[in-house]
Amino acid sequence: MNLIVNGQNREVVAETLAALLAELDFQGGWLATALNGDVVPAGERDRCPLAEGDRIEVLSPMKGG
Length: 65
Description:
The chain has a single domain, classed as Ubiquitin-like (UB roll), CATH 3.10.20.30. With 65 residues, the protein is mostly beta strands. A hairpin with a 2-residue loop joins strand 1 (2-5) and strand 2. The mean pLDDT is 93. The longest helix is centred in the first third of the chain and has 7 residues, at 17-23. It has one helix at 17-23; strands at residues 2-5, 8-11, 32-35, 38-40, 55-59. The chain is globular, with a radius of gyration of 11 Å. The chain contains one helix and five strands, in the order E-E-H-E-E-E. 11% of the residues lie in helices and 31% in strands.
């Protein structure tokens, strides 16, 4: 299925947001995720289905100042 992940087209086999994170090797409980502009809490990712053309944003905190 074709998705847009962090602004880039990606062809993936994942059917849920949790599976997508694993497939793309995103790790860490501190990740923030959004599906089509809506925040998806970590506890709901395994129950969050994906569909062709969905837009996913994966964010992680950064150090700096």
